[in-house]
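Could you help me review a protein record that somebody else here produced? This is what I was given.
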Amino acid sequence: MSTSASERLASTMNLGVFAKATELKARLWFVLGALIVYRLGTYIPVPGVDPHIMAEIYARNQGGVLGMFNMLSGGALQRMTIFALAVMPYISASIILQVLTVAAPSLAALKKEGEAGRRKINQYTRYGTVLLAAFQGYGIAVGLEGMTGPHGSAVINPGAFFLFTTTVTLTGGTLFLMWIGEQITARGIGNGISLIIFTGIIANLPSAIGRTLELGRTGALSTFGILFIIIAVLGLISFIVFIERAQRRIVIQYPKRQVGNKMFGGESTHMPLKLNTSGVIPPIFASSILLFPLTIASFHASGGGILGAVSAYLAHGQPLYIALYVTLIIFFSFFYTSVVFNPAETADNLKKNGGFIAGIRPGQATAEYLDYVLTRLTAVGAVYIAVVCAAPEIFVARYSVPFQLGGTGLMIVVSVTMDFVTQVQSHLFAHQYEGLIRKAKLKGRLK
């Protein structure tokens, strides 16, 4: 059978399995419904803000920090809607809790308690999200009162009531998004928070392409420049897919053992270690840390002073911003990898199950070898993320190309898409195996 015929047969079998996988379809419908609710919320404006003046103010600052924040919020910041903060406070709270889990012995012990400890840590993360969202919401409310456009102030009736309602509205919007993300993770497919960010970027992708073509029509970009952007984006997507699928396979062997007159074991398997173990977490974490102070500084930059200088020196494409962004990406690449993969624990589990790496003694030597391999892989992965996310920032800042076509946006879109497709395939395979097991049991009963 030819390769194309085999692929057609496999796709037909997958479609047949998908038609019978009612649980998978229910999960997909739930994800779709939750994301539609999220997108509707990005069009509900914050009370007391003039949307026309806000649009004028954003148009003057969209090439800077506000453009990046607006991309991650799915356009909610541009319209100053109830989801303007997006999930950034939740991500910041998660960073703080993960750092404290490593630094604080009580939280480290809580993490080792299993499911009960994980639920308690998640509860602490929610409390931290409330505090950070309230703080950021109040900062944005104060910033909005000081923002003016060509036709007046962005706030219709400034004052204490506006500050209170805006803070409560933005905090409630973030908490609602946090809840939606948790529901998608539990009742849908994939990571809910990543899917929310992914949906926001994808929703603004058509307009980003339109603005890029408009730059060519007005002469801001030449035809060669547009073709270069298209080729660069396609090449970047291919490169991201290649690296995200790259892995180092460590061969694990199990010794033979005799039970009665029969020999068991002796087989070998492999432990796959991804080149980029941390995924899209480092750029998202780095962006969330940089965007909060820069957004507040950008809101107050019109008055000059220290905040104006901060906004100028840390603007997109500036050397200081690129340096901080790369530093944070490298830090979170190593930090998150150490959180999700523990070489000592993995070596201990291998020793308990009788597995070993050829030429490496079980126990501490295996842990040191795994740590050595993982450190080298993480170093390469961190450089890859830094280059993919930081290098296009200079091009975006210089030619005013929309942020959705930059490295950070493309990496989030490609990585989340690959993870989502992988989980859908896992559900399909699980359903197919369940069907085979039921058929085998039915045949056994008939015999």
Observations:
- Residues 20-446 form a domain with the Preprotein translocase SecY subunit fold (CATH 1.10.3370.10).
- The radius of gyration is 25 Å.
- Strands lie at 148-149, 152-153, 247-253, 256-259, 262-265, 268-274, 356-357.
- The chain has a mean pLDDT of 79.
